[in-house]
């Protein structure tokens, strides 16, 4: 089985090495293909830089990636990397997609905007088992804790059937001995940040978007709340699908 390791922090992030080592330890063949530059907030966008109709790809070893693992920098958002990999862009088609380890949490309904989660959801829609992992710090110190939790989560993921679900893991940036454990959790109402839109002071035609931290303590049993309490969290996310349980009315005569 082949695992594609990607992220939205770019090819220079140590999180790629963490996931590559976990995949190799699980007995998977590994390919690292990550954005050439940071693509945070890209969601499932399919942006990429082309030259004569070809996606720009170059060999570039991510930090901590084993020497025997192929490592590529791609001028593309992570979801596009997932998409083209499913059509053999980098050789064999991956069976598993691992995204992260992200610098900073991906919790709550804000996961909709995450490039880390967007890549994983794209992989799920393309038939891959998919896992997104994030570490709760802008400049993490305890990558080993993320590696331990990822190893456990990946074992569970590989033992189950393929599905349209993505396993979203968030890990507190704590020493392994201080981690309280792993809890399955619902998504918080929004997530780690929210936006506030206001008029620009000097330009009535311009809008300013300010991102501010949400109060995690108001939803202590959510993924954001449990993460703040020292738990790693696991949330199963469904890739887009058509919900036929509710009938949308037709246009009367147009229905015949």
UniProtKB/TrEMBL annotation:
PANTHER family: 5'-NUCLEOTIDASE SURE, 5'_3'-NUCLEOTIDASE SURE
Domain Survival protein SurE-like phosphatase/nucleotidase span(s) in chain numbering: 4-187
The protein's name: 5'-nucleotidase
Top-level class of the enzyme under EC nomenclature: hydrolase
Keywords: Cytoplasm, Hydrolase, Metal-binding, Nucleotide-binding
Swiss-Prot/TrEMBL catalytic activity: a ribonucleoside 5'-phosphate + H2O = a ribonucleoside + phosphate
Signal peptide: none
The keyword Iron-sulfur belongs to this UniProt entry's keyword annotation: no
Organism this protein belongs to: Isoptericola halotolerans
This enzyme's EC code(s): 3.1.3.5
Family: Belongs to the SurE nucleotidase family.
């Amino acid at each position: 089985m082949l695992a594609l390791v990607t992220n939205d922090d770019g090819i220079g992030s140590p999180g790629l090495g963490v996931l590559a080592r976990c995949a190799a330890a699980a007995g998977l063949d590994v390919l690292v293909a990550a954005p050439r530059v940071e693509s945070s907030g890209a969601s499932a966008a399919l942006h990429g830089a082309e030259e004569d109709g070809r996606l720009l790809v170059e060999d570039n070893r991510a930090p901590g990636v084993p020497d025997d693992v192929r490592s590529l920098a791609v001028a593309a958002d992570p979801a596009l990397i997932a998409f083209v990999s499913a059509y053999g862009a980098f050789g064999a088609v991956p069976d598993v997609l691992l995204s992260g380890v992200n610098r900073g949490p991906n919790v709550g309904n804000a996961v909709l905007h995450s490039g880390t989660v967007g890549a994983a959801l794209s992989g799920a829609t393309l038939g891959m088992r998919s896992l997104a992992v994030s570490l709760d710090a802008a400049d993490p110190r305890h990558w080993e804790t993320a590696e331990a939790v990822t190893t456990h989560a990946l074992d569970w993921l590989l033992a189950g059937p393929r599905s349209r679900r993505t396993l979203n893991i968030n890990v507190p940036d704590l020493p392994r001995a201080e981690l309280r454990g792993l809890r399955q959790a619902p998504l918080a109402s929004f997530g780690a940040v929210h936006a506030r839109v206001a008029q620009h002071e000097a330009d009535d035609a311009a809008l300013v978007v300010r991102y501010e931290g949400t109060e995690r303590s108001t939803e202590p049993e959510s993924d954001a709340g449990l993460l703040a309490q020292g738990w790693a969290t696991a949330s199963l996310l469904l890739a887009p699908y058509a919900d036929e349980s509710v009938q949308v009315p037709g246009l009367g005569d147009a229905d015949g």
